[in-house]
Automatic annotation (TrEMBL):
Coiled coil residues, start to end: none
Top-level taxon in the UniProt lineage: Bacteria
Species classification: Bacteria, Bacillati, Cyanobacteriota, Cyanophyceae, Leptolyngbyales
Main location group: membrane
UniProt KW keywords: Cell membrane, Membrane, Transmembrane, Transmembrane helix
Source organism: Leptolyngbya iicbica LK
Transmembrane segments: 7-30, 50-73, 85-109, 115-136, 223-241, 253-270, 277-296, 316-338
The protein's name in its UniProt record: Permease
Subcellular location: Cell membrane
């Protein structure tokens, strides 16, 4: 009974912690879809994969989203045709490099300011490397869920998005938005809405605000359900595997890193508060292992895997997980072996 209560408490804690940031993420995603002209956005995007990866990683400095809110924004970037390196760089770096997390880490480790800059620096470095690796794949569609992949540029002609009423200027029941290419139906699937919607400079701000709100509700309804599922899994695993078992795995320079990475993946704590959680272990574990917890957890944890699977196929999530884990381990091991702070 106590384990059930503990699991329920953990589940609600994860849900309450992540929901505001998921809402923030879908708000940014919806505003990006309705208010930003995707053709201009793509035109300003660097074409070079390395520059795109760096831009995407630094783009996260402008978005105060955690590892839940970054998924809808990255998904929208991919659907708008942004380079995969930019979207992947943003996806991995945004939960850590945004100003809220930087400030929280600074407050928690104000006696160790090096921890703050190492965290941001390693996160950007790992994000850029992984984004460059993914950019080698010229056609990202095999890595994406079909509902997302259908909106990426294709070498073969593809049919226009589901539009109706192109032969009439009159709105019919269920109409959603007037676009230059026709009228978009409100009751079509959410992905079709997201994919076909472009900036609407000819519409009034009231219409745009209504469109943003409608899109937020649709996207939050879909991703919120996934977040509930992911939080339930993370809470169950935390109850089934006591933290003491993980922490007992090791105190050495190598095993301590593995233990803290595993702990970060299991506890799935939000990046805005994870620095205070990690601080409680700073007197026991090595600096490199604390850094591994702060870098690896916000990239991929047990909770946000379900959200990632709404955009990427399983093998792409595995690639992201393996690459992030390997790079985090190697770089934080170097910190343990070659630094003294």
């Amino acid at each position: 009974m106590s384990q059930l209560n503990q699991g329920l408490t953990l589940f609600l804690s994860l849900l309450v912690e992540a929901t505001p940031f998921l809402l923030l993420g879908v708000a940014f995603s919806s505003m990006l879809a309705v208010l930003v002209d995707e053709r201009k956005l793509i035109a300003y995007t660097p074409k070079n994969p390395v520059l795109a990866a760096i831009s995407g990683s630094l783009f996260g400095c402008l978005f105060p989203v955690c590892e839940c809110g970054n998924v809808p924004v990255a998904r929208r970037l991919l659907m708008q045709g942004a380079p995969s390196a930019l979207a992947i760089g943003f996806l991995l770096a945004a939960p850590t490099v945004n100003p809220i997390v930087f400030w929280a880490t600074w407050i928690a480790f104000r006696d160790q300011p090096a921890m703050v800059f190492w965290r941001v620096g390693l996160t950007i470095l790992i994000s850029v490397i992984i984004a460059c690796v993914f950019s080698v794949q010229k056609d990202m569609r095999p890595f994406l869920q079909p509902a997302i992949a259908r909106y990426l540029p294709s070498p073969e002609p593809k049919p226009e998005p589901a539009l109706v009423g192109s032969g009439s200027n009159l709105l019919s029941g269920g109409d959603f938005l007037l676009q230059s290419t026709g009228t978009l139906k409100l009751d079509q699937p959410m992905m079709a809405t997201l994919g076909a919607t472009t900036a609407l400079p000819q519409q009034s701000w009231r219409d745009k605000a209504q469109a943003v709100l409608e899109m937020m509700l649709q996207e939050f309804r879909e991703l919120g359900a996934v977040l509930v599922f992911g939080s339930a899994i993370a809470a169950t695993v935390q109850v089934a595997i006591p933290r003491e078992w993980i922490l007992d795995l090791g105190q050495g320079p190598i095993t301590s890193i593995l233990a803290m990475m595993l702990l970060a993946w299991v506890v799935s704590i939000c990046s805005t508060v994870d620095s205070f959680f990690a601080l409680s272990f700073s007197s026991i574990f090595t600096s490199g292992s604390i850094l591994a917890f702060l870098v690896f957890g916000p990239m991929i944890d047990l909770k946000n895997i379900s959200l990632l699977l709404t955009t990427f196929k399983g093998r792409a999530v595995v690639y992201l997980f393996v690459l992030a884990a390997q790079l985090t381990f190697v770089l934080t091991l170097a910190v343990n072996l070659y630094t003294s702070w």
